[in-house]
Amino acid sequence: MSITNAVVPVAGLGTRLLPATKSQPKEMLPVGKRPVVQYVVEELERNGFKRLLFITGTNKDSIENHFDPSHDLIRYLRETGKEDLLAELEFERADLHFFYTRQKMQRGLGDAVLHAEEFAGHQPFAVALGDSILGRHANSKTLSRMKEAFLDNNCAALVAFEEVPAAEVKNYGIAAPEKEPLDGQSFVVRDLIEKPAPDEAPSRLAVAARYIFSERIFPALHETKPGKGGEIQLTDAIRLLIRGGEKVVGIKLPDAEQRYDIGNFESYFQAFIDFALFDPVYGEKLRQYTQELLQAHKQQG
Ligand code: G1P
């Protein structure tokens, strides 16, 4: 069986990134040359997904516009001899089918995923949060490993995790792993807690914005009551699966693979610097510029 359906929730208000997100979605903020969500889509394509459902909300039209073919722009670039720029629009020709549905009220990530019930049908599907990039320039193959592990383990949910500093556990879903790992990279998830205080966190393993679910997540989501922040949490639905005796497996991101969380300015700035410094065209000059800048700063200070 191949897993080719993916759900991309992009409905959040992005309040932690105001004023940049006042009239544009955080998923459209540029990181280097591309908007965040383009990296997410490219990662999904690279990992064999074909049908993508975006769960959108207020003010998210520009995401749909971004993935529409831009016939007028293409004609203009041809007519004015700017053929080199056409390459920048190649992503529009990806072999992908886009679907959009709107979450009308901010009722949480769990409620957003529930909007995918008809789209997913009885097939397993991935959830890729639209504000997180995996790997520099989204070169991650983690979702392919997750698909394999999902099928091998015959589980109800498979979740990607990354180790975060203790001070950051309060920002994420945190796993309580079984003591005996399944192998070097994966483990059975015994419990999952949404945004715990540091002294309540069972580990430092944080949900890293990628999941694969069987259809059994939907009844769990229907049963999930509002949790942290008064919202229907996806984490709480996974917890219900575990309590109902279902197998939930976690897989760690490889050491070399960073997760860029474009949910706050600190990590957004880091992601931008990282992607720009290693841009294949502009990177080298920019690294030189940055070194000079830091040097001058040091001398002044
Ligand atoms: C959501 C999830 C959280 C997860 C995080 C990953 O939180 O609720 O469990 O760790 O995404 O980015 P949010 O960032 O939407 O507050």
Which helices and strands appear, and what pairs or packs with what?
Layout lengths: L4 E5 L20 E2 L2 E2 H11 L4 E6 L4 H7 L3 H9 L3 H4 L10 E6 L6 H6 L2 H4 L4 E4 L3 E3 L7 H12 L3 E7 L9 E5 L8 E9 L10 E9 L3 H7 L10 H10 L4 E5 L6 E3 L3 H13 L5 H18 L1
Parallel strand pairs: 1-4, 1-6, 4-5, 8-12
Antiparallel strand pairs: 2-3, 6-11, 7-13, 8-11, 9-10, 10-12
Helix pairs in contact: 8-9
The structure holds 1-O-phosphono-alpha-D-glucopyranose.
Describe this structure in words.
The chain is an alpha/beta fold and 301 residues long. It has a single domain (5-300), classed as Spore Coat Polysaccharide Biosynthesis Protein SpsA, Chain A. The protein is built from 11 helices and 13 strands. The chain has helices spanning 36-46, 61-67, 71-79, 83-86, 109-114, 117-120, 142-153, 217-223, 234-243, 265-277, 283-300; strands at residues 5-9, 30-31, 34-35, 51-56, 97-102, 125-128, 132-134, 157-163, 173-177, 186-194, 205-213, 248-252, 259-261. The strands form 3 sheets. A 9-stranded mixed β-sheet has the order 5-4-1-6-11-8-12-10-9. Helix 8 packs across helix 9 (234-243). It is globular. The termini are far apart. The model has no long low-confidence stretch (mean pLDDT 94). Bound molecules: 1-O-phosphono-alpha-D-glucopyranose. 1-O-phosphono-alpha-D-glucopyranose is lined by residues 12, 109, 129, 132, 172-173, 194, 206-207, 209, 233-235, 261, 263.
